[in-house]
Amino acid sequence: MTELRVLVVEDDENMRALVCTMLRRMGVGAIESAVNGEAALQTIASSARFDLLLCDWTMPGVTGLEVLKQVREKTPYTLFVMTTGKADVDSVKQAKLAGAAGYLVKPFSAAQLKERIQALLARAPR
To answer: How many domains does the chain have?
Structure first.
C-alpha cells in the first residue's frame, strides 16, 4: 500500500482526520484530503491522479454522488469507495450504478477499511 495515492473527501473534520490516520497506519504512501465535494473536484483537476477516492455521500453543495459521476467521466478506472451513514439497499444500488467500486457504512473500523481496500486492489486491473 506504500505506492497507493488516496484522496479522502469528508466534510466532518473529525471523521476526515480519523480516516487519514487509519490510512497512514495501514502504510498508505500518499494521502490527501478535501473538506467537501467542490474542494475534491478542484484537487482532482489540479493534482496527479489518485488510485483511490474515499468519499462521503452527504455533503453540502457538491454531494459524493456528484463527485463520483464527475470522476467517472474523467478517470473511469480510479477506485471509488462511497462512505455514508445510508445503509439502505436503494442507496447501495444507486452508488453502484453510478460507478462506485465499494461502499462503506459509517461508522466503520480500520479493519473494515483495510479489508475493503485490499479487496478492491486485488480485483483492480494492473
So the answer is: 1
